[in-house]
Amino acid sequence: MSPSLSDTPALSRRGLLKFSLGASAFLATAGLGASLSGCSSSIPANGFATLRSGDLLFLRALVPVMLEGAVAAEKMPAAVDGTLKTLDNGLNHLSPEMLKLTRQLFDVLGMAVTRGPLTGIWGSWENASADEIRHFLDRWENSSLNLLRMGHSSLLQLVMMAWYSRAESWVHCGYPGPPAV
């Protein structure tokens, strides 16, 4: 007699490894597919050195959610634009290999075929609510897949480093600014 579903563990260690391997293969294939199909154009958006138009679509939705509480609502558009410019400058100074990895992350987030299953954002980023984006960030932060946790960490670090390197962010955290020399 075979055991019932309630008698077997929900996911064994072997099952988790198989799932993780499959998910990693899926992400690698999707990234490679995007690169080969031309979905991941390397042409920067107008006014940017590194960020592409597709990157800006999801970053303009993501950054306001990440800056919530640190920026007043009326100052948010300027803060987002400034953060994106600073982020672009930072990406422009990355090593080619690090930039390639960052672009792969942005490609996975930008392509509809990978965005839906991995983020829960099935429509376009422009139409995603702040709650949907918070849920996506929480989902990646607490994922059992190391790859998604690393993606969350990368997004968080990129955006926060870009924001907190700007003088307008210093007042919120009590930093008086660098000493005058």
UniProtKB/TrEMBL annotation:
Question: What name has this protein been given in UniProt?
Answer: Twin-arginine translocation pathway signal protein
Q: Which organism is it from?
A: Pseudomonas mandelii
